[in-house]
Design a protein that fits this description.
This protein is an alpha/beta fold. It has helices spanning about 1-10, 10-30, 40-50, 60-65, 105-110, 125-130; strands at about 35, 50-55, 70, 95, 120.
């Protein structure tokens, strides 16, 4: 550990450049699948902008509890089921998964096929449950 700190002190410019590039890369990757939103912002989007909630979890997990009126299309089937979302192309789409990790890839896929108003529930359905917001079964 001592050598690690010595390396950082001796090569502070290189380490700084690495951290800047890493933070830019993380920011870029997170934004490609849509803007991350928290639970209250999701509620506002649903109530005021007629947003559609797209749950990309497997059907078994979806049946255990989901946001009311959400559409379930598992991530691995999304490419084959775009037709189900065509009528919602003008509405904002909020992507939901278990913990917020798979929504980025789903958002990238949707963006590539023409959807523009994409959002990701930060923390996934776990964050929704943590806020004690209602789930439908």
């Amino acid at each position: 550990m001592e050598q690690f700190f010595e390396y950082i002190v001796n090569h502070w410019m290189l380490c700084s450049a690495f951290l800047v590039l890493l933070s830019v890369f993380i920011q870029y990757e997170m934004s490609r699948g849509g803007k991350g939103v928290h639970c209250q912002e999701v509620v506002n989007l649903i109530n005021h902008d007629d947003a559609i909630v797209l749950d990309v979890r497997p059907a078994k997990e979806f049946s255990k509890g989901h946001i009311t009126n959400s559409i379930n299309i598992p991530h691995n089937l999304l490419a084959d089921r775009f037709v189900e979302l065509e009528k919602h192309k003008e509405h904002p789409i909020i992507l939901v998964c278990a913990h917020g990790h798979t929504t980025g890839a789903s958002g990238q896929l949707l963006r590539k096929h023409g959807w523009q108003k994409l959002y990701r529930l930060t923390g996934g359905i776990g964050a929704w449950e943590g806020e004690r917001l209602p789930l439908a079964s």
